[in-house]
């Protein structure tokens, strides 16, 4: 028996064949089922369409179910950079997260209160930086997924206790991570073959620098380390030097803030674009809109390295705080 399919069916079938996502395919299949005449000649075709619909829905449900069991160590990057806090037990990692973000990790004077990573967003002026508190690093048990989390981050914040053998804390943590082929960027010259090695910027935070009495501890640590390690000291408990910690994190993330403006209007100072240092105007245009990178002719810039409204070309290297008026 002939199917006698209407033209609308073939239009929907054509869209189905060119669809690229499961959702698009499902929409087309359901439209085809609605259009197709119901008689014996179309029984087999309708059964085939229902089978395809069921297959797509089952695959989507299976994917959704798998996502429910995704590891706690899989944390999507947010904000201007992802910073993973690492260190030995009881150095103040959870206390830091609680002090500078809205996260509420369990904080206690005894060790091992953190068993899974906890993210939080730290405001720094008009940007947000993602901090992730992690379980203590130790040789008793090395969690492979935690190592993967560290490999993916933009910056490792290595915390040490200034009042309890900070040099040993630093050396033990770095040694353990190097065994997992996670290497501070500053040590890259040790490795002639960097294949399989994750080179990541590090910043050492010497915590519990509570007052001038502990400044002597800091002076000793600095003397032992020399100029080899980028380091900042603070007290999470008292709040001492916490602004310096935020500034040091931004500096080590190697980022700049760039603002846009329309002709005759003021820029929005609350919503900068965050880019890596060294980005050009062409890179920035592509971040504003994917088509702009090709269409960009020139731009006007207000900033510290140019005069107000200076016309620049695609290869202009942007500076922190630049205000840009794109000319497409």
Q: What is the gist of this entry?
A:
The chain has 328 residues and is of the alpha/beta class. It is 36% helix and 20% strand.
The backbone outline, from C-alpha atoms, is extended
Largest sheet: 6 strands, mixed
- Number of helices, counting only DSSP H or I runs of 4 residues or more: 10
Protein structure class: alpha/beta
The amount of beta strand, in percent, is 15-25%
What is the terminal separation in angstroms?
59 Å
CATH fold group of the largest domain: Rossmann fold
Number of domains in the coordinates?
Answer: 3
- Helicity level: 25-40%
Taking all residues together, what is the mean pLDDT?
87
Low-confidence stretches: none
Give Rg in angstroms: 27 Å
Q: CATH H level of the largest domain: which superfamily?
A: P-loop containing nucleotide triphosphate hydrolases
CATH class of the largest domain: Alpha Beta
Question: Would you report the number of β strands?
Answer: 13
Give the helices and strands as they follow along the chain: HHHEHEEHEHEEEHEHEEHHEEE
- For the largest sheet, list the strands in their spatial order: 2-3-1-4-7-8
Tell me what the CATH architecture of the largest domain is: 3-Layer(aba) Sandwich
How would you describe this protein?
With 328 residues, the chain is of the alpha/beta class. The chain has three domains: 7-68, no CATH class; 82-253, P-loop containing nucleotide triphosphate hydrolases (Rossmann fold, 3-Layer(aba) Sandwich), CATH 3.40.50; 255-327, Beta-grasp domain (Ubiquitin-like (UB roll)), CATH 3.10.20. The chain has ten helices and 13 strands. The strands form three sheets. A six-stranded mixed sheet has the order 2-3-1-4-7-8, sandwiched between helices. Strands 10-9-13-11-12 form a five-stranded mixed sheet. Helix 1 (7-18) packs antiparallel against helix 2 (22-35) and helix 2 (22-35) packs antiparallel against helix 3. The radius of gyration is 27 Å and the shape is extended. The N and C termini lie far apart (59 Å). The mean pLDDT is 87.
């Amino acid at each position: 028996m002939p199917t006698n399919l209407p033209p609308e069916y073939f239009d929907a079938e054509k869209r189905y064949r060119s669809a690229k996502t499961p959702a698009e395919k499902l929409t087309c299949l359901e439209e085809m089922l609605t259009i197709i005449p119901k008689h014996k000649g179309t029984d087999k075709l309708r059964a085939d369409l229902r089978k395809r619909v069921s297959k797509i829905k089952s695959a989507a449900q299976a994917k959704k179910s798998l996502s429910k069991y995704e590891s706690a160590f899989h944390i999507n990057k947010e904000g201007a950079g992802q910073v993973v806090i690492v260190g030995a037990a009881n150095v103040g990692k959870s206390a830091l997260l609680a002090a500078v973000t809205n996260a509420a990790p369990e904080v206690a004077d005894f060790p091992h209160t953190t068993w899974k990573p906890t993210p939080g967003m730290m405001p720094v002026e008009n940007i947000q930086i993602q901090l992730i508190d992690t379980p203590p690093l130790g040789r008793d048990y090395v969690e492979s997924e935690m190592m993967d989390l560290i490999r993916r981050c933009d910056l490792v914040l290595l915390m040490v206790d200034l009042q309890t053998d900070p040099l040993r804390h630093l050396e033990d943590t770095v040694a353990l991570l190097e065994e997992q082929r996670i290497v501070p960027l500053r040590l890259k010259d040790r490795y002639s073959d960097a294949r399989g090695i994750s080179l990541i910027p590090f910043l050492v935070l010497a915590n519990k620098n509570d007052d001038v009495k502990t400044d002597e501890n800091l002076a000793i640590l600095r003397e032992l380390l020399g100029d080899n390690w980028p380091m900042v000291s603070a007290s999470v408990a008292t709040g001492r030097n916490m602004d310096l910690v935020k500034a040091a994190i931004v500096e080590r993330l190697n980022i700049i803030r760039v603002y846009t403006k329309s002709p005759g209007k003021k820029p929005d100072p609350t919503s900068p674009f965050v880019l890596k240092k060294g980005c050009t105007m062409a890179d920035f245009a592509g971040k504003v809109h994917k088509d702009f990178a090709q269409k960009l002719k020139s731009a006007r810039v207000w900033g510290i390295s140019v005069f107000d409204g200076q016309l620049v070309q695609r290869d202009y290297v942007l500076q922190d705080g630049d205000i840009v008026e794109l000319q497409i």
